[in-house]
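Researcher: Please generate the 3D structure of the following complex. Treat every line as part of one assembly.
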Amino acid sequence: MTNHNKFTRRKFIKASGVAASAVAAPMIITSSKALAAPTEINMLGWYGTAEPDMVAEFEAAENVKFVPKYYAGGDNMLAALAQNPPGTFDLIHTDAEYARLLIESDLVDELDPSDYPMDDLMHEDFMQFPGHWNDGKLYSLITRYGHLGVSYNKDAVTREEAMSYNVFWDEKLKGKVGHFDWHLPSLGEISLLNGNTASGPFDISEEAWKAVQEKTLSLKPQVGGYFDFGGTFAGLKNAEMLAMVGIGDWVTGILERDGAPVSSVVPEEGGIQWTESYSIVSSSTKKDIVKKYLEYTISAAGQVKSAQMLGYPGFAVTNAGRAMLNEVDPKEAKRTNQVDGDPNDPVALIKAGRIHYRDIPKQQSLEDWNDFWSEYKNA
Amino acid sequence: MKNKLDLYALTWRMPVIVWQLLFFVGPLLFMIAMSFFLVKNYRMEEAFEMKNWIKMTSRGYFWDAYLYTVFLASLSTVVTSLLAFPAAYGLAFKVSESTRRWAIFLLIIPFFTSYLVRTFSWYVILAESGVANAMLAYIGLGPFKMLNTIFGSIVGYLTLTFPLVIILQTLSLSNIDRSLIEAAQNLGAGRLKTLWSVTIPSAKVGLIIGAVFCFILSFGDFVAPYYLGGSKPPTLPILIIDTTKAGQQWPRAAVVAVVMMLTLMTVAYTAISLAYRKRR
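Model: Done. Output below.
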């Protein structure tokens, strides 16, 4: 009785090892490139800008992975930069008024305009947008924008009524007017209602600033609350608020896409524009791939993704982007008036002088405006 | 022998002492120090300046928010304690041991879910076109405005504190020596007289601690007054958020936080002194 052919434990382990190696080898060899750890791009941006609907396509194509840190409000963005060591972030998505501060603090790299389709931008202001350029040099690439005005419930307010900020004082809206809880857009809109259009709603004299405060305080009896994004969204959705100060299609657009009876208009007194851009952080070690993403965001395909962004909609900044949006998603293009010849085309509104770019107060300090906002909320 | 005993006692006390030092005394001292710091270019710089204290305490809106927060927290405490008492009384005296255990278990369950999510769910119920108004409409009432009002804030506070207060009251009432109640009844005291003269004084410590917890949680809560009260007007926790959002003024927020801590310590100390005060 020999046990030559017996399948011993040692033989089993040996055979298993060979078999396992044989099965795994092709996978290891063929997919080593694909399985290479993706390059992480650490991004500081508003909520939604690094979600799959925006970046998945680029991630797959370039084997990168976005690691976002979301913020709400430019102050928080600057604080995140100040409180983290250099090299923490590679890419910053921000508003124009805060991009200026990034440039002044020497935190972002100069960009070469010839790398981007600047000639295809839809308005000449976009080509040298205030805050994105310094001393004739480009530092932040414009990517999307939106307009703030009167947002309203269509069952309670007509479009004609909404075409003036005075609708907020309408008796039927008593207790039903909400504020987005940020002083700049709300006070900017009241400033526009007061006729501060010559040098813009944020560049106003002390006298005009007092008048803005008085006018704002007179709105207090109408106000139903002050809300962050979630509260604004819920308030409009369940018709608890019938009109909102300080927001625009970036909130109502999401609800409107779902069929809620809400909309936003730029009133006759004018609207305020938020403008977002991307900058490459000076201390980043991944500048080449980040630059590639900037090129992607301003490409026609990137612009369509931005216009359709689930987080909050924004307008396309290039002609190619608009053309592709009209081609692939005509419904969204029409909903947002991004159609050539539309009387409410956002570019046409800028050309008509009805849009003012959001900015920080010029003749008062940001603290003055913020202090008044706290007083107003307590009045 | 004495030293040995002290070391033994100290060993058992150590976790509490370490916990208090690490998670209460340390952060509190840092917060107090921070209230004297300055913010330059969105970065805090160590300093010892009174600027933040002068700035915050000289503003009318700070004191308005302070008084409103004290008022809301007090109202929440009274409403919650009064609503919780009958439920706690029933659980302590009118149900079996097993039912009481199940009830306490069920009261703990709300804490398994996010308070923010529970608060947002009230939107659907309290909205003018919501469930509550729809039910009231059946009996010809309403619609009533419930969201973005004091009522909304109180509902939010109840969501946060009601189960906890019932549990504390129930445990306190359950531990009353039943022979005292029986003695009062044997001596001819009616139900209300027994409740007022025997039951409540006997459960005083637990009832007051329940109320103190309710006050503390309501006083420091941001969610209810912001989302259900509409921040109209803001409370101190909302003011802290506003202050940090505007220019990253954490030191000014620390001023508000220190004032809140001092208020809560005063309230808690007074209440606990009252709870343990002997009857003369």
